Amino acid sequence: MANTEVKKLQNHLSLLRDEYSKLQKKYYDIELKYNAMAASSEDNMEETFAFRLLNHVRNLYDSVLYSDIKIKLFNKDVNAHKLILSARSDFWNESVLSSKDELDWSDIDTGVGIAIIKWIYTSGLDVSSVEFALDVLKKAHEFNLNNLVESCEQYLISSVNIRNCVKLYTVAETVNASRLLNYCSGLLSTHWDDLNASDFEHMSGPLLYKMLKSKTTFPLHSAIKLDREDVVFLCLVENSSKFLRLLENGPGDLPAIWSCILSQFYFQKKIKTQYTIFGEATSDLICSNALGQLSHET
């Protein structure tokens, strides 16, 4: 038991070391670019056009000066500028903004909306919680704000633990946040045996099935243990040709194999309840197919 826990800690430390190495490399690359820019610039960098332009953009946050569009939040309007929005993302291209004088963000949490607008103008992000970072991440992905997605990923990676790992993995998969996804995947592999059905209850069937296939030897067994008949059904559908061959050869000792895993009546109750719309014969076939797949996995 002690050796197992030590191994988990070692794997977790390995993930952290990898992430630290990535951050070091990113810092080194930024430093090189900064030094090259400083060497080729005028002596007083604060007087360069680029510096003055960036500083001017920061000061234009919620300013009426040059404002040609408003962003409507739930309980306030924010002055904005089409040029700056367009420069940040192709999501706000000329065809989108040319005829608009207002963007309706009233369906977005006001705090999230303000955080995104501030980032657009200042590149600064003030995150108060994991949930807040997730909300910003989702909208940043929707608006094609890739640099903001990276900033959210960096914060979330530092906040990942075994209890929120599945949730963060799910969001990362949805918005294609590869760094966060890979980090969560590694942590899930390390602590797989510590997870239970409640950890996966909000994960979609297709995503959970994909995960079980990559992280377990017998995905059907795992789906049953997690009480996820939707995932079991996906497994049955994907392997239907194998089930038909097994059924043609007769049930044999399949009921005995099934009872070793779970009560034989488990699926009869679960599957028939969920798939009764397809008729009793279909639900019976699904139950039989489950026995066939268990035989194949065993």
Describe this structure in words.
The protein has a domain at 201-297. It is 66% helix and 4% strand. It contains 16 helices and three strands. α10 packs across α11 (219-225). The chain starts with a helix and ends with a helix. Mean pLDDT is 80; it is low at 250-265 and 275-279.
> Major sheet, described briefly?
3 strands, mixed
Which spans have pLDDT < 50 for at least 5 consecutive residues? 250-265, 275-279
Strand order of the largest sheet: 2-1-3
From the helix content, strand content and strand pairing, which structural class follows?
mainly alpha
Described by the principal axes of the CA atoms, the overall outline is globular
- Number of DSSP strand runs: 3
H and E string: HHEEHHEHHHHHHHHHHHH
Tell me the strand percentage band: under 5%
What is the averaged pLDDT score? 80
Helix content: 55-70%
Number of helices: 16
Task: Report how far apart the termini are.
Answer: 27 Å
How much is the radius of gyration in Å? 26 Å
